[in-house]
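REVIEWER CHECKLIST
Item 1: Sequence provided? yes
Item 2: Single chain? yes
Item 3: Sequence as submitted:
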Amino acid sequence: MDIAPEHRVTDAAALAALYGEPGTASRRKEVPFLHPAYHPLIQASPFAALATVGPEGLDVSPRGDPAGFITIENPHTLLLPDRRGNNRIDSLRNVLADPRVALLFLVPGTNETLRVNGRAEISIEPALCQRFAMDGKPARSVLVIRVETVYFQCARALLRSKLWRPETWPERASLPSTGALLQGLTQGQAEPPIDGAAYDQGLPERQAATLY
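Item 4: Structure as written out by the authors:
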């Protein structure tokens, strides 16, 4: 889609004129450390989206575990354990190239979210990985995130989306299964397509056996 020149915003001044100044609360809620007021949101969150940037571009990756899995080590540091996954390690590769990261914390049933920006390093210190063990298995690595800015996002986006209202959720059967997605995506590739039905049949057992 082409944007007509007269409708394209190209500089910060034009953007500021379009939206106006942020309100007092919007400015004052941002702090450069993990303020105690923000601790309950982090401790109650079982899910966060991790954003990174690297030579191949941007990446946003889901991270989840029992609530409080991202630990407040001190007012300027968060610890994020990395678990068993698909071994693409896109986020970790990005951190090696560019330490800038961002986190978006969600708390089920809560419409406010928490945003944290900072810089990360990857630690494989045995004691630290063991500290985050689940089912007897240590974390594969731990992101040590040096916090730079923290602020909460108001509820409008989640209120508009009705994210936590089950009556608005689509029926799972109306969406493609994991196997159906893989079969469709691998059609026409050099290798034979993935058998979607077979993949779906074995998926619950595989996931249960490889969660940690």
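Item 5: Key structural point noted by reviewer: The chain is about 30% helix and 25% strand.
Item 6: Recommendation: ____
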